[in-house]
């Protein structure tokens, strides 16, 4: 006879349930990917409409971030010709790389949530360590996440992001859950884990 402690029984019953029902409770999700040319963003930042261009990409909450606020301050000083030309090129290149990553990430989010209308100002890109209740250290490097404002119709949602830069390109991928977390598990599994899960698999009177 094989004896199992409570932990092993719970793990065994949970695995057996999802093996016997592989697709029935698979949570719906969306995937979006986008690529952006950094030199194209650079041209916009070097033009007279740079500040307006950045404000169209970044949400109000993003513009309060120290890095974005510093970028906008640099563009304002550049527009007023308060920055020496010798320092301008490098700062513009860094700004273009940053904005290109945000642009690609927001386009990826829009593609992942293709069942609803989302605009750039609805999306705030931040880091997991900065989210309320996060257990990650703010000083450590944490993965980027997207906060999608639902407005009056939808609920605020969160999505995972991956942003990469290589040469003249920035690429981003978004993995988004299209369902609320509390609905991802069937009620009987959510309320009574462990051996009780067999009540939904075996007939009445049978034992596992």
Reconstruct the topology from this structure:
Layout: H1 6-20, E1 29-37, H2 38-45, H3 50-57, H4 60-63, H5 66-79, H6 85-112, E2 123-127, E3 144-148, E4 157-166, E5 169-177, H7 187-191
Antiparallel strand pairs: 1-5, 2-3, 3-4, 4-5
Helix pairs in contact: 2-6
Counting copies of identical and different chains, the oligomeric state is single chain
The assigned structural class equals alpha+beta
Q: Beta fraction of the residues?
A: 15-25%
- Overall 3D shape: globular
What Rg, in angstroms, do the CA atoms define? 24 Å
Q: Report the order of strands and helices.
A: HEHHHHHEEEEH
Total of helices? 7
Largest sheet: 5 strands, antiparallel
Kindly give the count of domains.
1
Distance between the termini: 14 Å
CATH homologous superfamily designation? 4'-phosphopantetheinyl transferase domain
Q: Provide the residue-averaged pLDDT.
A: 76
How many strands appear in the DSSP assignment? 5
Q: Per CATH, what is the topology?
A: Ribosomal Protein L22, Chain A
Q: Strand arrangement, largest sheet?
A: 1-5-4-3-2
**Helical content class:** 25-40%
Quickly give the CATH architecture: Alpha-Beta Complex
User: pLDDT below 50 for ≥5 consecutive residues: which ranges?
Assistant: 1-20, 180-204
CATH classification class: Alpha Beta
């Amino acid at each position: 006879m094989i004896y199992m402690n409570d932990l092993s029984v719970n793990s065994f019953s949970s695995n057996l349930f999802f093996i016997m029902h592989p697709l029935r409770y698979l949570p719906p999700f969306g995937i979006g990917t986008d690529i952006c040319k950094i030199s194209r963003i650079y041209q916009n930042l070097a033009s007279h409409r740079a500040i307006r261009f950045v404000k169209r990409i970044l949400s109000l909450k993003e513009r309060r971030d120290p890095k974005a606020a510093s970028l906008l301050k640099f563009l304002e000083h550049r527009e007023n010709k308060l920055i020496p030309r010798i320092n301008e090129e490098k700062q513009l290149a860094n700004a273009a790389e940053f904005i290109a990553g945000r642009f690609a990430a927001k386009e990826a989010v829009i593609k992942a949530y293709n069942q609803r209308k989302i605009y750039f100002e609805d999306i705030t890109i931040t880091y997991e360590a900065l989210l309320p209740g996060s257990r990650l250290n703010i000083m450590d490097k944490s993965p980027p996440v997207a906060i999608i404002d639902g407005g009056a119709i939808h609920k605020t949602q969160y999505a995972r992001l991956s942003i990469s830069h290589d040469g003249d390109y920035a690429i981003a991928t978004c993995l988004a859950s299209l369902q609320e977390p509390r609905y991802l598990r069937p009620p009987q599994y959510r309320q009574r884990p462990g051996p009780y899960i067999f009540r939904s698999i075996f007939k009445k009177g049978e034992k596992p």
